[in-house]
């Protein structure tokens, strides 16, 4: 409630009950109770709005985490498939080498295929790690920290390390 909504405080004392002469003393009890009730309702409304916003953020964060988990699992599957094929191709190259095959083209092609599989396996693993980062609910944790409701263990470790460093000096 703003100062212009209803006369209260200094304005009510200055205007008086009939609007002409200034009123002396505190506000009447019923008017004070009404203002306190309105302030309480406004506070409750703000708290409910904050709760709704946090709920919406949590729902969006969980949807992002669910999507990221699916993508991460897909890239893990890619990494496993290409990792297995790399092992098989490297074994085939080793067998060909051990059997005395001196034809560079056959061995070179097997090695090139194995190298390609290694590159794809590395890309798949990197993508999986990248998407797993989205499952941490970072936005929700950040908002909870701003509200003073949560803390991050990493932050505590960082603060503790800094305090230990200063104590050592």
Question: Can you offer a commentary on this structure?
Answer:
The chain crosses the membrane at residues 72-98, 104-126. This protein has 169 residues and is mainly α. The protein has one domain (10-149). Helix content is 78%, strand content 0%. The chain contains 5 helices and no strands. It has helices at residues 9-15, 29-98, 104-132, 138-146, 153-168. The longest helix has 70 residues, at 29-98. It is rod-shaped, with a radius of gyration of 34 Å.
Keywords:
mainly alpha, rod-shaped
List strands and helices in order, with pairings.
Layout: H1 9-15, H2 29-98, H3 104-132, H4 138-146, H5 153-168
Helix pairs in contact: 2-3, 2-4
